[in-house]
Amino acid sequence: MELAPERAARKPEALASGVPQRLGDRVFSGVAKGAGIGILVVLAGVAIFLLIEAWPAITAPAERIPGGEGLVDYIAPLAFGTVLAAVLAAIIAVPFAVAIALFVSHYAPRRIAAGLGYVIDLLAAVPSVVYGLWGVSVLAPASRDINAWLADHVGFLPFFEGPASVTGRTMLVAGLVLAVMILPIITAIAREVFAQTPRAHEEAALALGATRWEMVRMAVLPFGRSAVISGSMLGLGRALGETMAVTIILSVSGIVTFNLISSSNPSTIAANIALDFPESSGIAINALIASGLVLFAITLAVNMAARAVINRREKKEGR
Question: Which residues does the UniProt record annotate as the domain ABC transmembrane type-1 (predicted)?
Fold first, then answer.
């Protein structure tokens, strides 16, 4: 009689550790663990490769680096242009992506929402070179008058101080093209999470007399805030590494400026590598790989920051 409580107390331990798992569970667990370890190995391998190949440029004297002013002066304008173009694209794309996701998930009729969601998802399948050609052929000529107006009327701002580019191939056009490219990524993530908002939360807000917008603001947006942040960071990472679209639109120049409508624009790391790598040799290749290492570090830092923000918010919300 006294052993029964002891057996009952030990039963959960037996279920947790003593009962053998099925073969399928063990195989799936091993595959999942191997995939996770494999990703870490690949990531570490890429970092080690970049560091080894970039080391000759890191240790080389300044006069041997392209430009003759040192590796930091060579990479800094490119890193600045990379961050500027990506941040500009995110600033433009995120509000539109959230608005589209809300329209598809809570405002549009079901038939229209399904078709619109399909069309937006198709934007992600368009090659980046097509976006670049569209930017050069359509957006750049169309932006010349707008650039001139901005320079004349709001030129006191450092972003539009001019002189306006006569070709329209500016950082502003590059940011717009990148915004269109990352729009489907952010929209898809936000739309799926907005659609999963608990129905009880929405009905409770409406029952208290809230309008549809007030319901969205009080129930849907707080529920999907983490998705918007993660989608924005994912889109930002895509914009940071974009190559062909930026290469077609911008010319390489080693300057640092916030002017978005001038003909002299900072280029990006990825575009510079694409343009210069085929004709480079020796220490110039190592310098390009060193700039790739900086891009790798920037992208990694952005993703780690996004993960930290999401984890902190989930802890506050008690998830």
Answer: 79-306
